[in-house]
Structure formats: structure tokens, C-alpha cells
């Protein structure tokens, strides 16, 4: 099932579900873009990669030094590029600050929107491995290669987590690094390189046991679950997680260089402010502050990296030279290489959903079918006073359309009636998932109201704590919608290790789409 990289995001849907500013729900400042207002001299509206929320203290220092205030709006790198390509950033933002512009360069419709870029700092893709696992493997950190990692996975000695390449630049960069290293590519990745590497990539991704749409949630899930040996992410992210030895593979890395970019839609006054901001961020004093605070590497040669960042050189692995190669690599990952997904959608179809709310739910689910991957198992569990039905569909690679049509047909039949039995329905979802499978498993809860019947919060807490260890690792991702209770849903997310997604201020489509990165 072809799923081009450019279509893997839903920026248009996210636009209507958005908030402005720096708020986020996963510890890494994730939010979706809103109307940032008009340009104000001395204030820059910056569309930034979500991980850059840790730069707030540095930006406050720069404001004191220069008088330039940064108003960041955080979004995943690939989402931001799609937004730029569609012209939705024109007039809404004054600058772009992504982890990398490599993917942007593959999109001519996005690349033409940028007129200058200045690298601010850097961080390579790396492996963070538990100290105990490192001792068991007997590796010397300075000598480890991607091939060794693949061999350890093949031998059943190493498991890991990484972010979703279709949402996160750290995940996509990791995928590129592994494909380049295992194919032996000597220049930009080609279709032939991807084909050559595919058998080894399949082996490599059998070790992926944890996925995420953001680096912050990945780190939190790793610490909560403790069921993987390593994480693949940027060096700067891994350095902030206790108990990990950070390794830059000897056969090469892909590095983020965090360019601050001026946009073609701005005038000379705006571009001058962007130039001054970039200049201030590259002063030796600020570069030192950046590396000490964030564990990213300075780009000014006179400034040494923070303590603990080794200075051994590593080969920079080539990025794909064309969008078709990038699309093909992601399509292969989504539908062949990664473990399949298994998700139960627990859907509130109580009486309060009658009318527009139910129609919005149907439209969102019908639209989501285009995003389901081959081999994915999808269960729809609508509820009111109790669970009304349990319908499971598999997107079979031999006939994917049949599974997708089944999901759409069941969606269209949803009807609103009854009270709201949130906790009883969640218990049914966990019961449905009692059979363990080697897949990414999660529960999505969508409700427009508070629990009014059946089990209460205390009973559900007791039920959850009585689950087996593997079942307790199944997260619930609640969606705040209509008149639902934020505190109630936040508790469910916190208890189960999930994350709350907010559709009260905008698009239900956007919330469902964003959750895809965690499935």
C-alpha cells in the first residue's frame, strides 16, 4: 500500500486543531501551529522543530542581548515542511528553524520558500544503550558499527525504541543512517541501495519494540517500561537519559545541523532580524551555553563541545538524493520492515454524540483509513451504556482494500444512544488484547463526556493494576473532545503510560492523525 512521505502527515487537518505558542503534552514541546499574528519589529514568529523547546533559556538570553524576541510555534519537522510546501506558512511566520533542511531540499515546492539558512548547532543520530546491556555484549563504545547492532538484534541480544520516521526527523534520519550503513552506499541513497539493504533492514527492525511520535514521549516510555535495551535518537536527547551509554556508530551517522532559515515571503526588515538572531546564536558565549544546556554540539570551531561529547570524527552518511528514494524508503519501513500495529479504538457513541459530533467522528475515521498500514489490525469498539460491538479488521497485504472497506462500512453504521461507560469499555478493550502478539499494541479512547455509568475510576485503577506485566505496557491514548473531562482523561493517560491529545480546540482529524506516530 503506497504511502508517500509527503502524504504521511496531515498538516491541513492539524491547522484547524491548533494552538499557538510553546505548550506541549509529551515533554518535548509538541504543539500544532496556529495563527501567529502579523509581523512586529523585533519579534520573530518562528516555525520550529518540536525538540527545540529546550532552547527557551537560550532565547531569553539572546533577547536580553539583542532585543529580538522569538515567538516559536513547535511542530514535527516533516509536518513543518509539508506546511511550508502548501504555502500555509506564507505571512504567518517570519523564519523556519528545523532540525535539518535535508528533507526540505527534496521538496522543490518547500525549498523555494527558503532564501537563506545558517546552521546554529548540531547533533548526530546515535545509539543509547543500557550500561548493563553494553557489558553483556562486551562492546567498546568507540568501535561499535551499525552492522554490529544488526548482528546483536539478529542474535536476539538487543531490542530498542525509535521515533516514527513519517512524523519525526530523528526517526527518519535514523532510518536513513541504518539503510546507508547496511547497504554500503558511498553516495546519496538510491533505489538500488534500498533494495540491497532490505533483507538486512528486515532483520534490524525485528529488534524495534517501542515506537513514538516524539522524542520526549519515547524517553518517558523507555524509563517507564524498561523493556528495551537501547534507544535510537539524536545524541543530545540520549545524553539526557540516565543509565545510557551513548554511541556514535563508527561506520557513520546522519547529523542534524539546526539551520535558522529566512522565508521568501518576508521583507528585508524581517530578514535582517533573522540574520541578527542567527549571529547572536553563533557567538562563542551563546554557543557554549547551547552545548552545556542541550548537549548539542557547537558549530563555531573555537567553542569546545560540552563535557561528555567525544570529539572522534565520524563519517557523515549520505541523505537520499531524491524524493522518490525517500518515499520508497519510508513506504518499505511502514509496510514491510517495522512490526505491525494492533489498535483498539474505543469510541464514545453515547446519546450526547448525536448529530454533528457523530458525523465528525465518522468523517475522521473514514479519512484515517488512508493512513492504515499493511498488516495492521484495527478493532472498532463503539460504546454507550456498554460496549455495543467489537469488529476487527486486518489490512492484508494481499488485499488491503477489503480491510479498509470493512472499517469504513462499520464506521458508517455507528449510531448514538445510551450513557457513557468509559471505564467499563476500557476494561473490555484490555480483555480483547489478552492474547499477546509481536506487534505494537495500543488503545485509543475518544469520548465527548464524563463517565456516567458502569465501573468508576477507582475500579478501573484496580483492574489495571491487576493486569499482567505485558498488558500493563499497553498505553491508552485518550482524545479530549466535546465536553469530556480533561482531568479524567489525563489520569487514564498517566496511569497507562499513554498521552492525552486535545481535539476540544479544533480538529478531531488532527488528533487521530497525530496518534498515528505512537502506534
Describe this structure as you would to a colleague:
It is globular, with a radius of gyration of 23 Å. It folds into 3 domains: 5-121 and 257-298, 3-Layer(aba) Sandwich (D-Maltodextrin-Binding Protein, domain 2), CATH 3.40.190.10; 123-255 and 314-334, D-Maltodextrin-Binding Protein, domain 2 (3-Layer(aba) Sandwich), CATH 3.40.190.10; 340-518, von Willebrand factor, type A domain (Rossmann fold, 3-Layer(aba) Sandwich), CATH 3.40.50. Strands 5, 6, 7, 8, 9, 10 and 12 form a 7-stranded mixed β-sheet that branches. Strands 15-14-13-16-17-18 form a 6-stranded mixed β-sheet, with helices on both faces. The chain has a 5-stranded mixed β-sheet with strand order 2-1-3-11-4. Strand 13, helix 15 (356-368) and strand 14 form a beta-alpha-beta unit. Residues 2-35 have low confidence and may be disordered. The chain contains 21 helices and 18 strands. Helix content is 39%, strand content 18%. Helix 2 (56-66) packs across helix 12, helix 7 (146-154) packs across helix 9 and helix 9 (191-205) runs parallel beside helix 14. The protein has helices at 11-15, 56-66, 77-85, 102-105, 108-111, 131-137, 146-154, 169-183, 191-205, 215-225, 235-238, 268-281, 284-294, 323-337, 356-368, 400-412, 422-432, 457-465, 469-472, 486-496, 508-515; strands spanning 43-49, 69-75, 95-97, 114-119, 121-130, 160-163, 208-212, 230-234, 244-247, 255-256, 259-263, 297-298, 341-348, 377-383, 391-394, 440-447, 476-480, 501-502. By secondary structure, the chain is α/β, with parallel strands linked by helices.
Amino acid at each position: 500500500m503506497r504511502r508517500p512521505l509527503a502524504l504521511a502527515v496531515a498538516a491541513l487537518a492539524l491547522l484547524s486543531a491548533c494552538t499557538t505558542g510553546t505548550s506541549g503534552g509529551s515533554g518535548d514541546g509538541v504543539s500544532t501551529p496556529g495563527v501567529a499574528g502579523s509581523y512586529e519589529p523585533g519579534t520573530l514568529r518562528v516555525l520550529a522543530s518540536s525538540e527545540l523547546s529546550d532552547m527557551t533559556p537560550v532565547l531569553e538570553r539572546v533577547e536580553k542581548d539583542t532585543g529580538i524576541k522569538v515567538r516559536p510555534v513547535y511542530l514535527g519537522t516533516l509536518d513543518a515542511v509539508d506546511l511550508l510546501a502548501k504555502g500555509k506558512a506564507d505571512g504567518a511566520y517570519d523564519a523556519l528553524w528545523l532540525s535539518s533542511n535535508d528533507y526540505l531540499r527534496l521538496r522543490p515546492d518547500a525549498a523555494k520558500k527558503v532564501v537563506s539558512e545558517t546552521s546554529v548547532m548540531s547533533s548526530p543520530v546515535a545509539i543509547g544503550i543500557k550500561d548493563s546491556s553494553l557489558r553483556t555484549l562486551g562492546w567498546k563504545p568507540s568501535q561499535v558499527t551499525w552492522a554490529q547492532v544488526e548482528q546483536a538484534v539478529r542474535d536476539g541480544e538487543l531490542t530498542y525504541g525509535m521515533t516514527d520516521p513519517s512524523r519525526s526527523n530523528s526517526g527518519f534520519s535514523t532510518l536513513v543512517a541504518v539503510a546507508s550503513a547496511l547497504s554500503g552506499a558511498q553516495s546519496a541513497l538510491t533505489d538500488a541501495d534500498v533494495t540491497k539493504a532490505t533483507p538486512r533492514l528486515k532483520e534490524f527492525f525485528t529488534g524495534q519494540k517501542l515506537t513514538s511520535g516524539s522524542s520526549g514521549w519515547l524517553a518517558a516510555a523507555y524509563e517507564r517500561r524498561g523493556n528495551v535495551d537501547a534507544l535510537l535518537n539524536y545524541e543530545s536527547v540520549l545524553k539526557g537519559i540516565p543509565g545510557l551509554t551513548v554511541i556514535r556508530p563508527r561506520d557513520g551517522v546522519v547529523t542534524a545541523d539546526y539551520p535558522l532559515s529566512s522565508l521568501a515571503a518576508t521583507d528585508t526588515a524581517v530578514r535582517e532580524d533573522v540574520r541578527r538572531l542567527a549571529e547572536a546564536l553563533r557567538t562563542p558565549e551563546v554557543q557554549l551555553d547551547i552545548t552545556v544546556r542541550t548537549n548539542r554540539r557547537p558549530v563555531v570551531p573555537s567553542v569546545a563541545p560540552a563535557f561528555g561529547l567525544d570529539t572522534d570524527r565520524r563519517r557523515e552518511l549520505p541523505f537520499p538524493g531524491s524524493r522518490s528514494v525517500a518515499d520508497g524508503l519510508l513506504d518499505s519501513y511502514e509496510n514491510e520492515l517495522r512490526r505491525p500495529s494492533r489498535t483498539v479504538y474505543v469510541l464514545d457513541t453515547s446519546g450526547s454524540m448525536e448529530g454533528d459530533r457523530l458525523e465528525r467522528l465518522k468523517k475522521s475515521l473514514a479519512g484515517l483509513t488512508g493512513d492504515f498500514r499493511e498488516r495492521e489490525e484495527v478493532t472498532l469498539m463503539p460504546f454507550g451504556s456498554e460496549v455495543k460491538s467489537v469488529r476487527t479488521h486486518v489490512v492484508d497485504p494481499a488485499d488491503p482494500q477489503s480491510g479498509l472497506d470493512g472499517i469504513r462500512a462499520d464506521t458508517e453504521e455507528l449510531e448514538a444512544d445510551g450513557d457513557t461507560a468509559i471505564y467499563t469499555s476500557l476494561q473490555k478493550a484490555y480483555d480483547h488484547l489478552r492474547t499477546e502478539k509481536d506487534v505494537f499494541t495500543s488503545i485509543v479512547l475518544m469520548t465527548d463526556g464524563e463517565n456516567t455509568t458502569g465501573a468508576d475510576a477507582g475500579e478501573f485503577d484496580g483492574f489495571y493494576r491487576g493486569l499482567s506485566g505485558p498488558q500493563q505496557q499497553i498505553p491508552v491514548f485518550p482524545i479530549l473532545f466535546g465536553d469530556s473531562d480533561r482531568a479524567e482523561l489525563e489520569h487514564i493517560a498517566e496511569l497507562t503510560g499513554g498521552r492525552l491529545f486535545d481535539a476540544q480546540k479544533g480538529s478531531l482529524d488532527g488528533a487521530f492523525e497525530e496518534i498515528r506516530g505512537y502506534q
